[in-house]
Specification:
Blueprint: H1 2-21, H2 30-43, E1 46-49, H3 65-78, H4 82-88, E2 95-100, E3 107-113, H5 128-131, H6 147-164, E4 171-177, H7 186-191, E5 200-210, E6 215-217, E7 220-221, E8 225-234, H8 250-260, E9 272-281, E10 291-300, H9 303-323, E11 327-336, H10 345-352, E12 361-363, E13 366-367, H11 375-383, E14 387-395, H12 412-426
Parallel strand pairs: 3-4, 3-5, 5-14, 6-12, 7-13
Antiparallel strand pairs: 1-2, 2-4, 6-14, 8-10, 8-11, 9-10
């Protein structure tokens, strides 16, 4: 194992930096999917893209047709083959890779997210990607959450399976999932049935908590269920000085909704969150605003608390529209569920990593917050009788996730690859 990790470590850095330089937003990861798929094919995996990888109608929060077309044209210029683009047309990105050893054993699945964020990467000299010349080449798009590292880890695990398949038993499914940000893509892959007969499922994240490289956690606690919705307000425009009474102010309705959403009473049974992340309205100081747009998310510790927060948020948003006599259209654009990892996997992970070279410490559990799209996959595996967990891979965090200067220590990449390959190589009856 040590020799394998040492040999692949330089390639891990190369993959990560390549992905970092060409980030793509959710459901527009055309080039990223192509790169991943080609490498997985080269390794000998059976791959599935487009309709074969994901249920089209189960996706949420799709980009506009204009944005999708623009990205597809860019993919053509990049060199993505027509057959691939035809399969991915309309935002059907992401790839599933399978390997059947042909020997009896467990079915193990792993999820790696592949999308970036609408953030402009910093150009400050202290930023390592600037120093090493691998910053994002896309304006206002950046891998600011570590998904460039997650894809890299996935390819590292795939390389291990390919090189050691004769020593392994059972089947392996690797899901390179689009549109994790906003809770939009996992449900579509889950709906395709990839998790329905999985015995063991692993996903995870670089960072989240600031931990030393070499420290990992076998499970997490604290991910919240979440809903994301957009509210579009339609009023009546009028001259603000000569005929203000004829107008219906969409901006005021949106502003009333935005401020009053924060008055939702917190729930006695658990943690709650609400956030208004975007408000767009108005066209000029002497014009009654006709249009306004809000982007909102709610979160709750359980499915029931999450539903409470969502229902209250919708009620308040509609009430604000009624108060200002404007129309309101609400579109649900994302959703995640709560996660409860199987604690029985803690000793499995600890035992698998006991004699590791790169993994120095295995924490049984790490406290987290936020939400995770992998919840759909984890919950489906558990509903069908399998075991699932979500792991953390430690790195120093000088800046938080979703920050223009976010970065992670690349030394975490071999740690994560070693941890996951040891778990799948020794944890479930395989010959290591």
């Amino acid at each position: 194992m040590k020799d394998f990790i040492n040999q692949i470590a330089p390639q891990l850095v190369k993959w990560r930096r390549d992905f970092h330089q060409y980030p793509e937003l959710g459901f527009m990861e055309y080039v990223t999917t192509y790169k991943l798929g080609k490498e997985l094919e080269r390794l000998g995996f059976q791959i599935y893209i487009g309709e074969d990888a994901m249920e089209r109608e189960a996706r949420l929060g799709l980009p506009s047709e204009t944005d999708l077309k623009e990205k597809e044209n860019e993919a053509i210029k990049y060199g993505v083959e027509k057959e691939w683009l035809d399969s991915m047309h309309g935002g059907m990105t992401g790839v599933v890779a399978t390997w059947d050893t042909g020997k009896p054993g467990d079915h193990t699945a792993l999820r790696f997210d592949i999308d970036a964020l609408p953030i402009q990467e910093t150009n400050q000299e202290y930023h390592i990607p600037n120093q090493e010349a691998f910053t994002s080449t896309e304006m206002q798009v950046m891998h600011a959450c570590g998904h460039d590292g997650h894809m890299t880890i996935g390819l590292g695990v795939a390389s291990y399976i390919s090189a050691h398949h004769e020593q392994l038993n059972g089947r392996f499914t690797l899901l390179f999932q689009p549109a994790e940000e906003g809770g939009r893509g996992a449900r579509a892959m889950t709906a395709k049935g990839w998790l329905d007969d999985v015995d063991y499922f692993y996903s995870g994240h670089i960072g989240i908590n600031d931990m030393p490289v070499g420290t990992i956690s076998a499970t997490v606690k604290g991910f919240l269920s979440s809903t994301k919705f957009n509210a579009t307000f339609k009023g009546v425009s009028s001259h603000a000085g000569m005929k203000p009474e004829a107008g219906k102010n969409a901006l005021l309705a949106a502003a009333a909704a935005a401020t009053n959403l924060y008055t939702i009473p917190r729930h006695s049974d658990g943690v709650t969150r609400v956030n208004v992340g975007k408000l767009l309205a108005g066209s000029g100081r002497n014009i009654i605003p006709e249009d306004a747009h809000l982007e909102v998310e709610t979160r709750g510790e359980t499915k029931e608390i999450g539903a409470y927060m969502h229902e209250e948020a919708i009620r308040i948003t509609k009430a604000a529209a009624m108060m200002h006599q404007v129309e309101c259209k609400i579109e649900n654009v994302g959703v995640t569920e709560s996660i409860f990892c199987d604690e029985s996997l803690i000793p499995r992970v600890q035992e698998a990593c006991r004699e590791s070279v790169f993994v120095k410490e295995v924490l049984p559990v790490a406290r987290v917050s936020g939400s995770e799209d992998a919840s759909f996959m984890i919950n489906r595996v558990q509903e069908k009788g399998g075991k699932a967990t979500y792991m953390l891979f430690g790195t120093k965090l000088n800046y938080p996730h979703h920050h223009p200067a976010f970065d992670f220590q690349e030394e975490v990449l071999p740690v994560a690859v070693e941890a996951l390959t040891k778990v799948i190589g020794r944890g479930h009856g395989n010959v290591y």
